[in-house]
Amino acid sequence: MGASQSKDKMHCTRYLNGKGPPPLTETVQAEVQGSNNHKKNTLIKQGNQPDGGKMNWNIERRSLSGHSECDTIQITFHFDDGIQSDMHPHPGHSYKGTEFVAYLPQNTTGTRILRLLEQAFENKLLFTVAANISGEYCVTPADIPFKTQDSGGPGSFGYPDPNYLKSVRKSLKVKGIN
Question: How many beta carbons lie within 10 A of that of residue 157, not counting itself?
Fold first, then answer.
C-alpha cells in the first residue's frame, strides 16, 4: 500500500499488477494521431476565462470514495479579483476571484483527465465570470463538471460517481479537448 518515490518519478504501487498510471511528470502532446499516423489538427474552442488564473495539482495519499485502489489528485485553481474584459458580461466592472478545489482518482483515466483539464485551462475553458445569486460578479466554473467533494455522491458534487470520468471527458471533447 502507498507509493514509492524517486527524485525523478512517482510510482503508484497500489495496483494488483504493480503498474500505476503514467507518471504525472510526463509531457502529454496536444496533437491527435490519426488512424493513418498523420497528425490531425483539432479545433479547440477558446473560452472567456479571466487572465492570470493558476492551476496546480498534488497527490494526496488517500483514496476517493469508489476508487479505493489509488491515491487522489487534488487540483487547486486560483483567480485574483479583477476587472472584466470585453469578453465578459460587464466590461470594465470588477469581479471577485476564487480559490477552487477539485478531485480526481490517481489512476490511468484520472491522469488522462488531469492532462485534458490542463489543456482546457490553457484554452480558458474551465472558468468564466458570471453574477452570483446576490448579483455580484465572480469567477465561477463554466460548463465543464468538477468533483469538489471527495465523498457524498453525485448530488453533492462528490464521489462515488461511476459516470463522472466519462461525463467530464465527453464535455471536454465537445470543446475540442481530447
Answer: 16
